[in-house]
Amino acid sequence: MEAIEELSQLSDSMRQAAALLADEDVDENSSSTRSSTFLNVVALGNVGAGKSAVLNSLIGHPILPTDENGATRAPISIDLEKDGSISSKSIILQIDNKSQQVSASALRHSLQDRLSKSSSGKNQDEIYLKLRTSTAPPLKLIDLPGLDQRIMDESMISDYAERNDAILLVIVPAAQAPEIASSRALRLAKEYDGEGTRTIGVISKIDQAASDQKALAAVQALLLSQGPPKTADIPWVAVIGQSVSIASAQSGSENSLGTAWRAEFETLKSILTGAPQSKLGRIALVDALAQQIRKRMKVRLPNLLSG
């Protein structure tokens, strides 16, 4: 996919300029700097918004738990490396200097176990995975707990969202699109990214609102940049985001994942008949990510990307 290839090129550019990609202003009296966050994508949304399912769709494997018992209760950070030499069905887990092939099911169950332990105590330390696949863009995806959970405080959110080059994914289910102006995820994104230069809006679960004309009208307004004023400067994408289709695709042929994403696009097109087709589906989301990251890098590193 062209957008994924562009993200790979941006990732290479980032590595070439690693010394320039400080995430904070240089302090002459301090030798410490944070690592770059240009390729970080932070998912913001309430419980049930479909955050984990949207991230699974980006990964191309149903790794993150999406059922009620698997609700994200601690930050999960998935560092993705794209490797076109391996099968679309393969996932390579990297621990230290060792690599191990694992299944999406095994990773998902392991995460469910770790999240269950998190919920029984007060330990909300980040869960970190480094994975190599042929299906995912070279990004670091951060799945935060639902914003309406008690464990979510401002300090946890700011740890990830305030980093001034991380992309913020504001994820809102289609049924709540008419009330988008009151979305806490949108409010937080505006707080950390007032100009909207590193925010993308994602409207999930379109299929579940297929018969709700009020919701669909609100979704189409967002996609046409005709929503409430506070949404106008943010690119919006509509997805179904169900990892069920991804899981079933994994049991098919080598090309079945692409077929599943095309089927998602066709379904969205049939539901959102008046929406721009360039704003529909997983492919549109990857493209929006590539565009926002490139814009952000051009602002911060104009010389690097001038060619």
Number-wise, the strands total: 9
How confident overall, as mean pLDDT? 83
Residue share in helix: 25-40%
Indicate how many domains the architecture comprises: 1
Strand content: 15-25%
- Which structural category do the helix and sheet elements fall into? alpha/beta
H/E element string? HEHEEEHEEHEHEHEHHH
Main sheet attributes: strand count, strand direction, barrel closure: 9 strands, mixed
C-alpha-based Rg, rounded:
19 Å
* Strand line-up across the major sheet: 4-3-5-2-6-1-7-8-9
Low-confidence stretches: 22-34
- Terminal Cα separation, in Å? 22 Å
Question: How many separate helices?
Answer: 9
Structure description:
By secondary structure, this protein is of the alpha/beta class. It has a single domain, classed as Rossmann fold, CATH 3.40.50.300. It is built from 9 helices and 9 strands. Strands 4-3-5-2-6-1-7-8-9 form a 9-stranded mixed sheet, sandwiched between helices. The two termini are 22 Å apart. The relative contact order is 0.17. Pfam families: Dynamin_N. Keywords: GTP-binding, Nucleotide-binding. This is Dynamin-2A-like. Belongs to the TRAFAC class dynamin-like GTPase superfamily. Dynamin/Fzo/YdjA family.
Features:
36% helix, Rossmann fold, nine-stranded mixed β-sheet, alpha/beta
Summarize it.
The protein is globular and about 50 Å long.
Describe the SSE topology.
Blueprint: H1 2-16, E1 40-44, H2 51-59, E2 76-82, E3 91-95, E4 98-102, H3 104-120, E5 127-133, E6 140-143, H4 154-161, E7 167-173, H5 184-192, E8 199-204, H6 213-223, E9 236-238, H7 243-249, H8 256-271, H9 281-300
Parallel strand pairs: 1-6, 1-7, 2-5, 7-8, 8-9
Antiparallel strand pairs: 2-6, 3-4, 3-5
